[in-house]
Design a protein that fits this description.
This protein is α+β, with helices and mostly antiparallel strands. The strands form 2 sheets. A 5-stranded antiparallel β-sheet has the order 1-2-9-4-7, covered by helices on one side. Strands 6-5-8-3-10 form a 5-stranded antiparallel β-sheet. Strand 5 and strand 6 form a beta hairpin. The chain is globular.
């Protein structure tokens, strides 16, 4: 089963390559000493490229001691420079018992999630529909780009999954943080969300918001 999971993960990375490299240039390893641009990091001089630029050893279990009981470690262009220009990245997601990956979206990437341990309820929302499924080890689920989605640990222990993204450095916008980690006045939030005033105050306290 472990070998099948590894093969699936590699397949996900390969099949989700959205920006194929030119035949005239096999790769463009990121020069992390220079600022990024809309098209990615500038290329490191070929003479300075080593095998280490294409390797990352830190995709290990993340710390789940937080409000969501969620640990995420990523392999993106910021710690794996060889991903620059390839349009892919990866992440390991550890969700503790009763934990969750809160409602969020990736404006710049689709995501394919591969379960390797435990059980989770996963899903995403469109303007007209809701897609929800219970996934177990060996199952695969896709979250389309820009749609709100979530993962909830529904098993009896820690749940672990690996994800591949169609971006070398995908952004993530968490709905709770967008709503409650800002300085928007509570009275306005009450009107646009229909939540109770005191409930909004509690959530702002949790997420560091003011107003």
């Amino acid at each position: 089963m472990k070998m099948i999971q590894i093969i699936l993960f590699i397949f996900a990375l390969i099949s989700y390559t959205s920006n194929a490299t030119s035949s005239a240039k096999d790769f463009c390893v990121a020069n992390l000493l220079l600022p990024t641009t809309p098209s990615g990091f500038p290329c490191k001089p070929p003479s300075l490229v080593t095998a280490n630029d294409f390797s990352f050893t830190g995709l290990v279990a993340g710390n789940t001691e937080n409000r969501f009981r969620l640990g995420v470690t990523t392999a993106s262009v910021n710690n794996l420079p060889g991903l620059n220009g390839l349009g892919i990245s990866a992440a390991r997601i550890d969700v503790g018992f009763n934990g969750t990956v809160p409602m969020h979206l990736h404006p710049d990437a689709s995501e394919i999630s591969i379960m390797v341990e435990g059980q989770m309820i996963v899903g995403f929302i469109t303007p007209t529909n809701l897609f929800v499924k219970t996934v177990n080890a060996g199952d695969v689920f896709v979250f389309p780009q820009g749609l709100l989605h979530f993962q909830v640990n529904s098993g009896s222990g820690t749940a672990v999954s690996f994800s591949a993204f169609t971006s070398p450095d995908p952004s993530m916008q968490v709905l709770d943080e967008l709503l409650f980690a800002n300085s928007l006045q509570t009275s306005i939030l009450q009107k646009v969300t229909f939540l109770d005033f005191e409930q909004i105050k509690k959530l702002k306290a949790v997420f560091g918001g003011t107003g």
